[in-house]
Design goal:
mainly beta, nine-stranded antiparallel beta sheet, six-stranded mixed beta sheet, 19 strands, Lipocalin
């Protein structure tokens, strides 16, 4: 009896499934995906609407790598290989800048390599990728660099999602926000300054840029290079800086900078510290 009930329930279930499928096919909302043709796209471009995608790296002498994927979009996996050729579309980058008021620049070709621009998606697979290797130690900070990849040609129709602008954001290990405490000697702005959230921004692997007064006091900036022995070399294009010997250094155990320097013929002087707050 139990077996008969199970059999009847199975028949009823199949009936409802067939009826429901028929209703769907007759519905205005039904889409027969089995008839959709295969195409190729860049999945990260699709996920970000062809807009720039930020990749943040720590500046170092050892190259870093990341993949650039292409994807076969189809109802079923294809039984044949699919080929695609990647390239850089600087015209798309320029048009994006014009449309969005941005100022992206092409990453200098001396700072990166791509292992292969001619990709093959194997039969019964969906993905293939190229590997980009970036020498972050050669990249100068302060630029909005991108690599504007696109699918130049393929053995399948190319989707609209085929513009992947990889925005390379460079940070060294000192890049971040600091709690600053300094004593400033100055003819008109002298005093003690305690400020949090002061940003030190990357210039290259060992150098960051900050305000001339460390705290946000002046309109001029200075570059601070951390040497191999953690001593500091401080320079500025605005003034000639004189460092007090042995008193400018970085303490990696506490992530704290110690400053003691002057300019303006001895009429201006900074003494103090900048302690790591957050990245």
């Amino acid at each position: 009896m139990k077996r008969s009930i199970n059999f009847i329930m199975a028949i009823v279930g199949v009936f409802f499934l067939l009826t429901f499928s028929s209703c769907l096919k007759n519905s205005k909302y039904y889409a027969d995906l089995s008839k959709v043709g295969a195409s190729i796209d860049m999945p990260l471009a699709a996920a970000n609407g062809n807009a720039p995608v930020a990749f943040t790296f720590v500046a170092a002498d050892t190259p870093v790598t990341y993949p650039i994927y292409v994807n076969v979009a189809s109802p079923k996996k294809l039984g044949v290989p699919v080929t695609a050729t990647l390239g850089l579309d600087t015209a798309y980058m320029d048009q994006y800048n014009s449309n969005n008021g941005t100022d992206y620049e092409l990453l200098p070709d001396s700072t990166y390599t791509v292992n292969n621009l001619n990709l093959t998606v194997p039969a019964n697979q969906r993905l293939a990728y190229a590997t980009v290797s970036i020498n972050t130690g050669k990249i100068q900070g302060g630029h909005d660099y991108v690599l504007p990849f696109t699918i130049v040609k393929a053995s399948l129709p190319i989707e609209n999602w085929n513009h992947l602008m990889v925005n390379t954001i460079l940070k060294n290990i000192y890049d971040g926000y600091y709690n600053v405490s300094i004593v400033l000697v100055h003819p008109s702005a002298g005093g003690t300054y305690n400020q949090s959230g002061i940003h030190f921004s990357t210039v290259n692997a060992t150098t960051f840029q900050c305000n001339l007064g460390v705290a946000q006091i002046f309109g001029a900036s200075m570059n601070v290079t951390v040497n191999a022995d953690n001593s500091l070399t401080i320079t500025s294009s605005a003034v000639s800086i004189v460092q007090d010997a042995g008193l400018n250094y970085y303490d990696p155990s506490t992530k704290t900078f110690h400053f003691s320097y002057g300019w303006g013929g001895g009429t201006r002087h900074v003494t103090g510290t900048a302690a790591w707050q957050h990245s």
